[in-house]
Amino acid sequence: MDAPLEKIADPTLAEMGKNLKEAMKMLEDSQRRTEEENGKKLLSGDIPGPLQGSGQDMVSILQLVQNLMHGDEDEEPQSTRIQNIGEQGHIALLGHSLGAYISTLDKEKLRKLTTRILSDTTLWLCRIFRYENGCAYFHEEEREGLAKICRLAIHSRYEDFVVDGFNVLYNKMPVIYLSAAARPGLGQYLCNQLGLPFPCLCRVPCNTMFGSQHQMDVAFLEKLIKDDIERGKLPLLLVANAGTAAVGHTDKIGRLKELCEQYGIWLHVKGVNLATLALGYVSSSVLAATKCDSMTLTPGPWLGLPAVPAVTLYKHDDPALTLVAGLTSNKPTDKLRALPLWLSLQYLGLDGIVERIKHACQLSQRLQESLKKVNHIKILVEDELSSPVVVFRFFQELPGSDPGLNAIPAPNMAPSAVSQERHSCDALNRWLGEQLKQLVPASGLTVMDLEVEGTCVRFSPLTTAAVLGTRGEDVDQLIACIQRKLPVLTCTLQLREEFKQEVAGTAGLLYVDDPNWPGIGVVRYEHANDDKSSLKSDPEGEKIHAGLLKKLNELESDLTFKMGPEYKSMKSCIYIGMASDDIDVSELVETIAVTAREIEENSRLLENMTEVVRKGIQEAQVQLQKANEERLLEEGVLRQIPVVGSVLNWFSPVQASQKGRTFNLTAGSLESTEHTYMYKVQGSGVTPPQTPSGARTKQRLPGQKPFKRSLRGSDAVSETSSVSHIEDLEKMEHLSGGQDASEANSPERHPGVPTPPEAEQTGALQDRAQRLEDDCPQMRKPRSTDLRFTQPVNSHL
């Protein structure tokens, strides 16, 4: 142990010890501060920027949320559907904040309050949707309620499942029956949540002969149940649809309920049509859902309530099993899920709830009645009186088909023709749906692909009207837009086959069959170096098609042109859009072929000219160097010496002409510039010939755009103009009748004599008549011989 410094007798040693102690303390403090700073740097480096420091104020945080919701100011605004949040929406949003505040109460008050909220909401929903003596489970994910019901059914049918677990299921595998029209991915979700293998799912097909093609085939379902029982399986649960996800059709729930009671199967119903249970009039097929074992409701979209949970109503007498299945909970915070819906239902009241659902059904009926009056539109509606979903599509009647059957092809039609017609209509319906969504965003339309009907457009106001604020005026606007787009669809579909034939008959063009393109067609120009067997991109072809696209867009026609890769390869093609009027397809195809050929020839001419110019420059350099050497020989060596050369040039100047070379681009030859320096003028050279154009010259009326057929009303104009044409011809013949008598005094016989006015007039009329006959050969007067203007031979010559 070190002795205290005060006990050291030597003052020098004591001073040295004191200084050393202070120095060591300073070093230790410095090291400690360095370590603390490094620790802070490491800590701050690991923490994200918004969390560093003492925190941020509320305004900055809300500004950050706003930027994340709507994007930065530099970004382009995106056209998305904005939810119409009214006062009922604010009440629902208030419920989430209020639920967080209520969760801070003491346990006894929280238990009483949550029990009251849950019981009130369950009672109100059961009374509104006619489901007596039911229980409710509130969940965020719509499919979560069905998964809990499946777990409840397993516990109900397998008494030893709690003890033996999946060994019970292995000995007698459960079967869950789903309709073929169910939402995609539902069966996989249930198996993942329950831990069941996929063979536990059974897909029930829909009707093929009788009834709706989107309803479950009850007879086939009964056959499947019997087969599963014979194989030792246990039919567990059946999921029926009261409004399928695609077209809103309802299964025969009454017949399905009888079948489930017969074989002890749990019946669960889901679908948008369950919302109509709140109305005064309900169809019998939907009303039968009130007798099922459970149903899933989605009141949020139906009533326009944001962030409101879905509800699964069920009937079961054993609270222990429902607790094990997860349908009930002892946690008060789980019961607070019903708080937003509890507040919203009180705010709307029964009249407000019924009014919103009734308004959505009236919108569907309004659209359905209006579409019945529109040609080339087929409606896929199961029940015309009460269906809240309207699905429609554009179709074109095929030869030998029944219009009422959606243009079902005749037996003698080739399958390729049927498939081509189907793909064409699908592309057009997809285009129609996207156009209507942009023109009427409040309609909430969706485009979907059905297995049998093809691409269709769906209007489901029960899931969108309350959110988007759809009104009756929006439906009328939707009908007006459909009527404006129908002529474009019919005209485009009629011109497709003509365009394909014209392209097939034109050299250098290849028709590209793209089933996803809704326009007239797709065409590709095959240049000389095109490798037809290759599917890779072609730089030369891409350059030609880019120039072709630019030329076509410069014509300012009503057609739209785009360039993109081919459907099955990476080669560039020209995509021709929709036709809004009668288009002259032959002129369109010929213009494309000629323009592409000219671009290819000009490109090759430019390449050849570049090579010729390069060789010409090299030849000119050689000739100029040779001429310079000859000049040195003529002038002599003495003239090249600086001082001596100047004296000689002063006494005896050299008369040397400036010699150069000029390159004639037209002739591709190298010429001398002596003529230019001698006569002080530029040589005229050879006049380049005009570039021949293969495009057909078509006479257009004033204001008529390219690729338009001649209007029928132009016949009257041509008849009116033909009268003046014939009068000019008669006047010209009358003046030429006395021409032979005055030809002796013609200027050709007497040079220097002025031309009389009659001769000038006759010549002008001759030129005008010739132009009229060339432009309008159908207006030429019928006569035995053509009118000729000849000059008699002078006798003295």
UniProtKB/TrEMBL annotation:
<keyword id="KW-0210">Decarboxylase</keyword>
<feature type="domain" description="PDXDC1-like third">
    <location>
        <begin position="499"/>
        <end position="604"/>
    </location>
</feature>
<dbReference type="InterPro" id="IPR055103">
    <property type="entry name" value="PDXDC1-like_2nd"/>
</dbReference>
<dbReference type="InterPro" id="IPR055102">
    <property type="entry name" value="PDXDC1-like_3rd"/>
</dbReference>
<dbReference type="Pfam" id="PF22930">
    <property type="entry name" value="PDXDC1-like_cen"/>
</dbReference>
<dbReference type="Pfam" id="PF22937">
    <property type="entry name" value="PDXDC1-like_cen2"/>
</dbReference>
<dbReference type="InterPro" id="IPR050477">
    <property type="entry name" value="GrpII_AminoAcid_Decarb"/>
</dbReference>
<feature type="compositionally biased region" description="Basic and acidic residues">
    <location>
        <begin position="27"/>
        <end position="40"/>
    </location>
</feature>
<dbReference type="GO" id="GO:0005794">
    <property type="term" value="C:Golgi apparatus"/>
</dbReference>
<dbReference type="InterPro" id="IPR002129">
    <property type="entry name" value="PyrdxlP-dep_de-COase"/>
</dbReference>
<dbReference type="GO" id="GO:0030170">
    <property type="term" value="F:pyridoxal phosphate binding"/>
</dbReference>
<feature type="compositionally biased region" description="Polar residues">
    <location>
        <begin position="684"/>
        <end position="696"/>
    </location>
</feature>
<dbReference type="InterPro" id="IPR015424">
    <property type="entry name" value="PyrdxlP-dep_Trfase"/>
</dbReference>
<protein>
    <recommendedName>
        <fullName>Pyridoxal-dependent decarboxylase domain-containing protein 1</fullName>
    </recommendedName>
</protein>
<feature type="compositionally biased region" description="Basic and acidic residues">
    <location>
        <begin position="725"/>
        <end position="734"/>
    </location>
</feature>
<keyword id="KW-0456">Lyase</keyword>
<feature type="compositionally biased region" description="Basic and acidic residues">
    <location>
        <begin position="768"/>
        <end position="786"/>
    </location>
</feature>
<keyword id="KW-0663">Pyridoxal phosphate</keyword>
<dbReference type="GO" id="GO:0016831">
    <property type="term" value="F:carboxy-lyase activity"/>
</dbReference>
<feature type="region of interest" description="Disordered">
    <location>
        <begin position="683"/>
        <end position="797"/>
    </location>
</feature>
<feature type="compositionally biased region" description="Polar residues">
    <location>
        <begin position="787"/>
        <end position="797"/>
    </location>
</feature>
<dbReference type="InterPro" id="IPR015421">
    <property type="entry name" value="PyrdxlP-dep_Trfase_major"/>
</dbReference>
<dbReference type="Pfam" id="PF00282">
    <property type="entry name" value="Pyridoxal_deC"/>
</dbReference>
<dbReference type="GO" id="GO:0019752">
    <property type="term" value="P:carboxylic acid metabolic process"/>
</dbReference>
<feature type="domain" description="PDXDC1/PDXD2 second">
    <location>
        <begin position="387"/>
        <end position="493"/>
    </location>
</feature>
<feature type="region of interest" description="Disordered">
    <location>
        <begin position="27"/>
        <end position="51"/>
    </location>
</feature>
<comment type="similarity">
    <text>Belongs to the group II decarboxylase family.</text>
</comment>
